[in-house]
Amino acid sequence: MTLRKSKMRVVLFTVLAISVLSLSAFAAEKVTIRVLNYLDASAPGTSRELVEVWQKFEADNPDILVIREDQFNEPFHNKTEAYAAAGKLPEVIYVWPGGRSATLHEKKLLKDITPLLGKDRENFIDAALEPQAGGYLAMVPIGLTASHALFVNHALLEELNLKMPKTYEELKAMVAPLKAAGKDCILVGAQDDWVMQSVLYSMIFGRLVGDEKLQDFADGKAKFTDKVFVDSLKFYEQLFKDGVINRNAMQTPYGEVAALFAAGRAPFMIDGDWKAGAFLLDPTTGQSLLSPAQQEKVEITVFPAIPGEINHNTSSITPAVGYAMSAAVKKNSREEKAAWRLIEWLNSAEVQKVRLETGAAFPTRKGVTSDKLEPLANERAGFYGRIGGTAVLDNVLAPEICIPINIGLQEIGLGLATPAEVAKNVQDAYNRRAKK
Amino acid sequence: MKMLRTRKEERRAYLLLVLPAVLLYFAVVAFPMVFSIWMSVSDYSGGQIFGGSTPVKLIGFSNYSRMWNDKYFWISLKNNVFIVLISVFGQIPLGFVLAYAINRGRVRAKGFYQTIIYLPCVISSVIVGILWQTIFSPYGPVTELMQRSIPGWENNLLSNPRTAIIPVLLVMLWMYTGTYFIIFLANLQKIDQQVLEAARIDGATEGQTLRYVILPALSGVIVTSAILAISGSLKSFDLIYAMTGGNPARRTSVLALYMYDTAFRGAPNYPLANAVSTFMMAFSFLLIIITKLVEKRFGGREE
Question: pLDDT (tens digit, 9 = 90+) per residue, A378-395?
């Protein structure tokens, strides 16, 4: 009996030892990397992104365990700030070149990827290799983006016997007939306060003031109370006074505006060029907000000529977002290798092609094209060649300065503040920051 | 000698039972509160608090002064006061009236109404927020219905700074009344039926029974509900965050959202956010003290 018991103990111990050893060996092989990812779960291209980008990476790299956290819009930025504050950034994180990710860049919480990128940098366009707000290359953007694009529903214009306006005056003249037809002129989903600055005002500032002067504002060589800045806000205010943009834009949720445009609520919509993706086919449901035939009748262009503009036919353009690595990841560690393998994959030609087809981003890698583009994705690809570019404000100015601009633009639109008052608030914010 | 040992044992047992709870309380309530107050008077700007490259300094009450001079703080505080008012003078009375009507058998299909009234409380506030955001959208069903009766009517409810908070208050009334309804219904059912019967035999009318029997019996419950309503109102966040995000132009913001924006949106300012949270704590205490004083003066007759 005792012998049997002791034999049993030996067997049990052996089994336990084998399992512990095999488990530890397995654990030693797998490297875990956490990713904070930006993903619009409601976008039609999301299922392709999940399957062809993320699941494929996991299948091809069984030695890497990716723990991905998907967030969208404001919650994403809030989570980023919370991670930064706690000093617990994930190994891989989706970042903006400045603006909303300024904390990460300015506090050098991201790794300089220049040594890791090596010769692969030759495969990217020059604009993608510009250092970000931290003064070094923390990521290679997965695409270029125009934060301002005017989407035009030509079918609706034809139905209402209206012509595409070339100047602001012509656009203003369309407000009355559109109102008579029960339509708005331009839709903007600006309930979130970043929207007006990013998709509209940056373009207005670029047209009326320009990048050189913007840098003067950022460096303190010019004051936000200067006439040029106030005048640009005055033009923005005029859009509401003329009825070109309805103040209801400020209570239109950002995610709702594409559906409203597709439903023909207005012939124009202002948003970032990324919004093109919202109209494309969702392969999981086989449905799209606009059919390919309807997409043929939609043009992506920029706002008509503004009186007094110094830059013509421009949008606000920025090398877009990309994936960066936390500076806390140790050099030459297994985590660094795994994280870099993921980032390389996310910047690969294969992934950029998927993103081009889903309308998520326009490639920064040279030579990436596709013969499977839907009409609107094609239109977007051609859009960049037809326009000039100026900076997006929140990519250049510090967040402390952008916040009063963002809120101020909403207040001007709602008639709660004058351009001069907003300009003063912005200058006060600049002074407070300069004092620090 | 034996007595002494028993007392010692008693004390040890007492400490053994109480200490874990006290330690837990200090760890998760008292310490964060004190830490938050400390942070509100510091210049902490993220990263390591102790032993970091830039040591954290105490800078006095400048964050409180900045908060005091920020118009968005006052807008948020005003909205919080509106929410407290709609909770205390809207949700509680309405919850009581509905519970009273059902308890006194004024309606048929009690179970059905109980479910309907309580249902909003069990739905996630984020879903409720998005649902009502769509309903009140300028292109949503409210607009369409109104435009059918008044052609050309424009829905400026949320974009008009004076009315922007009204839809939020309505949704809060709709959503949380059920909580007080259930509390009142449970307590109404506890009232001794013989007392009510005796009042009726003595010739008391329905109003007199309510005034002299039921309301005094429920005074403690009313105060507890008021405390719950006040503390809940000051914490309001999720519903508003999902419904309006505090916009347009921060006109529907509340203190919790203002604190959140300060801490995590754009340019994080943790000391200022902690100053807001300290203020919220003090304000909450003040309102609860007022409620207790009111109860002392007018209530406490349930026995």
Answer: 898 888 888 888 999 988
Cα A353 from chain centroid? 18
pLDDT of residue B143 exceeding 90, the answer is no
- The rounded radius of gyration (Å) of the Cα atoms in chain A is 25
Instruction: Identify which of A85, A398, A413 has the shortest CB distance to residue B270.
Output: A85
Contact call for A103 and B250, based on CB within 8 A: no
Q: Tell me if A224 sits within 8 A of A423, measured CB to CB.
A: yes
Comparison of pLDDT for A40 and B87, the residue scoring more = B87
**Interchain proximity B158–A407, CB inside 8 Å:** no
Strands (E), A165-249: 186-187
Judged on CB neighbours under 10 Å (0-12, 13-18, 19+), A136 is: middle
Q: Which amino acid is at A359?
A: G
Listed as own residue / partner, the contacts of A225-230 with beta carbons closer than 8 Å and 24 or more positions apart are A225/A420, A225/A423, A225/A424, A225/A427, A229/A205, A229/A423, A229/A426, A230/A419, A230/A420, A230/A423
Query: Do residue A251 and residue B138 have CB atoms under 8 angstroms apart?
Result: yes
Cβ–Cβ of A402/B158 closer than 8 Å? Answer: no
Helix (H) or strand (E) holding B35: helix B31-40
pLDDT band at residue A12 under the 50/70/90 scheme: low
Do residues B262 and B246 lie in contact, with contact meaning Cβ atoms separated by under 8 Å? no
**Which residues from chain A sit within 8 angstroms of residue B245, using beta carbons?**
74, 191-193
Q: What is the tens place of the pLDDT at every residue in A89-102?
A: 999 999 988 777 88
pLDDT, one tens digit per residue, over B85-114 is 999 999 999 999 999 999 988 788 888 999
Query: How high is the pLDDT of residue A52?
Result: 92
Task: Say yes or no to pLDDT of A198 above 90.
Answer: yes
DSSP per position, A317-384:
EEE--EEEEBTTSPTT-HHHHHHHHHHHHHTSHHHHHHHHHHTS-B--BTT---S---HHHHHHHHHH
Question: What is the pLDDT averaged over residues B188-217?
Answer: 90
How many other CB atoms sit within 10 Å of the CB of residue B303?
6
Two structure tokens written together for A353: 């092609």
What dihedral do alpha carbons A361, A364, A366, A372 form, nearest 10°? 0
Q: Quick one: residue A215, left, alpha or beta (phi over 0 = left, psi -120 to 50 = alpha)? A: alpha
Q: Integer distance in angstroms from the first to the last C-alpha of chain A?
A: 80
Structural Rg of chain B based on CA atoms = 25
Mean residue pLDDT across chain A: 90
Supply angle C-alpha B184, B187, B190, rounded to 5. 150
Other Cβ atoms closer than 10 A to B61: 12
Question: CB B249 to CB A84 under 8 A?
Answer: no
Q: Does the structure show a pLDDT above 70 at A24? A: no
Interface test with A, best of B76, B134, B159, B240 (most A CBs within 10 A): B159
Asked whether residue A1 carries a pLDDT value surpassing 60, the answer given is no
Domains in chain B and their CATH numbers? 71-298 (1.10.3720.10)
- Whether the CB of A402 is below 8 Å from some CB of chain B: the reply is yes
Q: Domains in chain A and their CATH numbers?
A: 28-140+321-360 (3.40.190.10), 146-318+385-435 (3.40.190.10)
CB contact under 8 A, B249 and A403: no
d(CA B6, CA A135): 72
Question: Per-residue pLDDT tens for A323-365?
Answer: 999 999 999 999 999 999 999 999 999 999 998 888 778 888 8
Hey, of A251, A400, A401, A425, which one would you mutate to test binding to chain B, going by the most B CBs within 10 A of its CB?
Answer: A251
Quick one: average pLDDT of A134-154?
A: 90
Place of tokens 């309580």: B118
**ipTM, two decimals:** 0.80
